[in-house]
Amino acid sequence: MQDQGIKDRNALAVVLGNIKQESNFHPNICEGGARVSYQNCRAGGYGLIQWTSTNRYIGLGRFAMKYGGDPSTLNTQLRYLSNEQQWIKVLPALKTSGQSIDWYMNKSYPWLGWGIHGARTRYAYQYANKLILG
User: Fold this and answer.
1) pTM confidence score
2) In the chain, where are the structural domains located?
3) From the CA atom positions of the chain, what is the Rg in Å?
4) Residue 46: how many CA atoms within 13 Å on its side-chain side?
5) Residue 18, SS3?
Protein backbone atom coordinates (compact mmCIF):
# COMPACT_ATOMS: atom_id res chain seq x y z
CA MET A 1 0.00 0.00 0.00
CA GLN A 2 2.88 2.33 0.76
CA ASP A 3 4.35 1.57 -2.67
CA GLN A 4 1.11 2.89 -4.15
CA GLY A 5 1.59 6.19 -2.34
CA ILE A 6 -0.43 5.70 0.84
CA LYS A 7 1.83 7.27 3.44
CA ASP A 8 -0.54 8.57 6.11
CA ARG A 9 -0.73 6.46 9.28
CA ASN A 10 -4.52 6.81 9.51
CA ALA A 11 -5.06 5.90 5.86
CA LEU A 12 -2.91 2.79 6.19
CA ALA A 13 -4.68 1.90 9.43
CA VAL A 14 -8.07 2.13 7.70
CA VAL A 15 -6.95 -0.22 4.92
CA LEU A 16 -5.63 -2.69 7.51
CA GLY A 17 -8.71 -2.38 9.72
CA ASN A 18 -11.00 -3.08 6.79
CA ILE A 19 -9.01 -6.12 5.68
CA LYS A 20 -8.96 -7.46 9.25
CA GLN A 21 -12.76 -7.08 9.47
CA GLU A 22 -13.35 -8.70 6.08
CA SER A 23 -10.97 -11.66 6.24
CA ASN A 24 -8.60 -11.42 9.21
CA PHE A 25 -5.90 -11.37 6.50
CA HIS A 26 -6.74 -14.87 5.26
CA PRO A 27 -6.82 -14.85 1.44
CA ASN A 28 -8.45 -18.29 1.25
CA ILE A 29 -11.50 -17.52 3.35
CA CYS A 30 -15.09 -17.77 2.22
CA GLU A 31 -17.78 -15.66 3.85
CA GLY A 32 -18.75 -17.34 7.09
CA GLY A 33 -15.20 -18.44 7.87
CA ALA A 34 -14.60 -21.57 5.78
CA ARG A 35 -10.99 -21.77 4.63
CA VAL A 36 -11.36 -23.09 1.09
CA SER A 37 -10.00 -22.52 -2.38
CA TYR A 38 -11.55 -19.89 -4.63
CA GLN A 39 -13.33 -22.59 -6.64
CA ASN A 40 -14.91 -24.08 -3.51
CA CYS A 41 -16.46 -20.90 -2.15
CA ARG A 42 -20.07 -21.33 -3.21
CA ALA A 43 -21.80 -18.38 -1.54
CA GLY A 44 -21.00 -14.95 -0.18
CA GLY A 45 -17.70 -13.14 -0.43
CA TYR A 46 -14.22 -14.55 -0.84
CA GLY A 47 -10.71 -13.52 0.00
CA LEU A 48 -8.95 -10.60 1.67
CA ILE A 49 -11.75 -8.11 1.11
CA GLN A 50 -14.59 -10.59 0.65
CA TRP A 51 -15.24 -9.95 -3.03
CA THR A 52 -18.97 -10.62 -3.05
CA SER A 53 -20.74 -9.23 -6.10
CA THR A 54 -20.72 -11.52 -9.09
CA ASN A 55 -18.60 -9.14 -11.19
CA ARG A 56 -15.96 -8.70 -8.49
CA TYR A 57 -15.82 -12.38 -7.53
CA ILE A 58 -15.59 -13.56 -11.14
CA GLY A 59 -13.17 -10.71 -11.84
CA LEU A 60 -10.74 -12.18 -9.32
CA GLY A 61 -10.84 -15.54 -11.10
CA ARG A 62 -10.43 -13.99 -14.54
CA PHE A 63 -7.54 -11.82 -13.34
CA ALA A 64 -5.81 -14.90 -11.93
CA MET A 65 -6.24 -16.82 -15.20
CA LYS A 66 -5.05 -13.90 -17.31
CA TYR A 67 -1.91 -13.30 -15.26
CA GLY A 68 -1.13 -16.88 -14.24
CA GLY A 69 -1.95 -16.59 -10.56
CA ASP A 70 -3.98 -18.53 -8.06
CA PRO A 71 -7.06 -16.57 -6.88
CA SER A 72 -6.72 -18.18 -3.45
CA THR A 73 -3.31 -16.61 -2.75
CA LEU A 74 -2.24 -13.37 -1.14
CA ASN A 75 -0.06 -12.26 -4.07
CA THR A 76 -2.78 -12.68 -6.68
CA GLN A 77 -5.40 -10.99 -4.52
CA LEU A 78 -3.15 -8.01 -3.78
CA ARG A 79 -2.40 -7.64 -7.49
CA TYR A 80 -6.10 -7.86 -8.32
CA LEU A 81 -7.02 -5.42 -5.56
CA SER A 82 -4.56 -2.81 -6.80
CA ASN A 83 -5.94 -3.07 -10.35
CA GLU A 84 -9.61 -3.12 -9.47
CA GLN A 85 -11.66 -0.04 -10.36
CA GLN A 86 -13.11 0.32 -6.86
CA TRP A 87 -9.61 0.57 -5.40
CA ILE A 88 -8.35 2.90 -8.11
CA LYS A 89 -11.25 5.27 -7.40
CA VAL A 90 -10.53 5.52 -3.64
CA LEU A 91 -6.73 5.56 -3.95
CA PRO A 92 -6.45 9.36 -4.40
CA ALA A 93 -8.31 9.89 -1.11
CA LEU A 94 -6.12 7.34 0.65
CA LYS A 95 -3.04 9.13 -0.68
CA THR A 96 -4.25 12.38 0.91
CA SER A 97 -2.35 13.03 4.14
CA GLY A 98 -3.49 14.48 7.41
CA GLN A 99 -7.07 13.24 7.63
CA SER A 100 -8.89 11.46 10.44
CA ILE A 101 -9.63 7.76 10.54
CA ASP A 102 -13.33 8.55 10.15
CA TRP A 103 -12.59 10.61 7.02
CA TYR A 104 -10.57 7.77 5.45
CA MET A 105 -13.21 5.25 6.52
CA ASN A 106 -15.93 7.25 4.76
CA LYS A 107 -13.77 7.55 1.64
CA SER A 108 -13.06 3.81 1.63
CA TYR A 109 -16.71 2.77 1.64
CA PRO A 110 -16.99 2.64 -2.19
CA TRP A 111 -14.02 0.26 -2.24
CA LEU A 112 -15.68 -2.30 0.03
CA GLY A 113 -19.32 -1.30 0.31
CA TRP A 114 -19.65 -3.09 3.63
CA GLY A 115 -23.06 -4.26 4.66
CA ILE A 116 -21.97 -4.71 8.27
CA HIS A 117 -19.68 -2.08 9.71
CA GLY A 118 -18.51 -4.46 12.41
CA ALA A 119 -15.31 -3.61 14.27
CA ARG A 120 -13.44 -2.19 11.27
CA THR A 121 -13.14 1.32 12.71
CA ARG A 122 -11.98 0.02 16.08
CA TYR A 123 -9.37 -2.09 14.27
CA ALA A 124 -8.27 0.98 12.32
CA TYR A 125 -7.71 2.92 15.55
CA GLN A 126 -5.75 -0.01 16.98
CA TYR A 127 -3.52 -0.16 13.91
CA ALA A 128 -3.01 3.61 13.93
CA ASN A 129 -1.71 3.35 17.49
CA LYS A 130 0.72 0.58 16.52
CA LEU A 131 2.02 1.66 13.13
CA ILE A 132 5.57 2.95 12.99
CA LEU A 133 6.24 4.62 9.67
CA GLY A 134 9.76 5.10 8.45
Assistant:
1) 0.93
2) 2-130
3) 14
4) 26
5) helix
